[in-house]
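Filed under: proteins

Residues; backbone shape codes:
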Amino acid sequence: MHLSDEEDNYNLSLSKFESMLKTNKVFFFDSEEFEEIILHYLDMGKAFLAKKALKLALEQHPKSTGLKLVQVEMLVYDDKLDQAEKLLNELYALEPTNEEIYIQKANIYSKRDNHEKAVELLNIALQHTDDYADVYNLIGMEYLFMDNLEMAKESFIKCLEEDTDDQAALYNVVYCFEFLDQNEQAIAYLNQYIDKNPYSEIAWHQKGRLHYGLKQYEDALRAFDYATLIDEEFMGAFMEKAKSLERLKRYEEAIEAYNRTIELDDPTSYALLRIGKCHEKLGNDTLALKFYNKTVHEDPLLDKGWIAITDFYMRQKNYQKALFYVNKALNIDNENRLYWKRYAAINKEMHFFEEAEIGYRKAVELGDFQLDTWLFWVDILQFLGEFDNAVQTLLQASEYFPDEYEVEYRLAGLYYILGENDKGKFHLTNGLRMNFENHIILEELYPAVWDKKSIQNIIAKYRKD
């Protein structure tokens, strides 16, 4: 009832003030009413009305420290730091123990990127305040600006000791632990916090996230379960719960959890995509495809949706459709090496070798240095009769894989084809030395080279050795 009365009085003050502006009549407000009105307009982003209210407030209460501190806040908001500092110095002479003066001075130093001085002033504010939580929170933010995550973490923990309900501080504590790569310590801290605050859905959610990051999926699921029991509309927790269930291969339950996120809010393309993946794992191909199509309908620019359909058709060996959908993904993101690799593999299966070569080349150019990508590319170049290009590509690959027999056997075969027998022999002996058992690669890829007597003699020498 008391809170309702306060709210009614607050609304009445606002209505009275706005009525005054419309009628040009002058009404009296006490200084605290003016402070609430000004801060309301600032929060609403209505700076003009806030300034108008402040002007009228100072006319009615020219000696109010609270209003002058609001004036300081507005000067800082307008980046008039020198004026704000001058006014603060005047207020300090009158009220040297007013913690708000130190907080605003700290704010000015923070704006000037002097965060050390800001912390110094906030520590003085601690000596004069009753609201320790707020000041510890501000100190934590200053340490974040300085990238001093240890001290920031310590400050946010102190803030939570004073005010266990400060959700922003709780998020910030976990952020600091994670940034410092202290996930186990973060879980230990959250366990202590939960012992005292067992109904904090945020703490359970953060604990779940940390377990998930450590691949402790059962523990993560348990934490997300608690978070969703405490808050049955906590969409983020349901989403994380679904991801954990998916990791645990409990696909039907994962689908239920993803569906719950859709009930709580508009369908997200991510949830639809994951539901499709779960159905595919369960062998529900028709439903999987239905949800993949829903995904791209919901967000036509989600390349992962088009790739999911591509992969679906690749597994079905329906390469014509797979090619259509991989092109959709490439139209959205043509800098993705994995998409180009799929494009190449699909074209290779369809015997479109020139397109396949382009795909593998683009994949490597974009940073796919996997051995199989190099080898597929080389084999395509060889099939197209581009032996010199194939050699140059293998020499590039050898920089990443200097001790890889598959590269050496291919170089040997290509050099022999090009008539560069000394180079061919060099790479053949390298391959035989690295891995004799797989010399059969030479027969499979270069039968004409394999049949040469000189080649068989070299191989026989290594067989005896």
In short: The two ends are 95 Å apart (CA to CA).
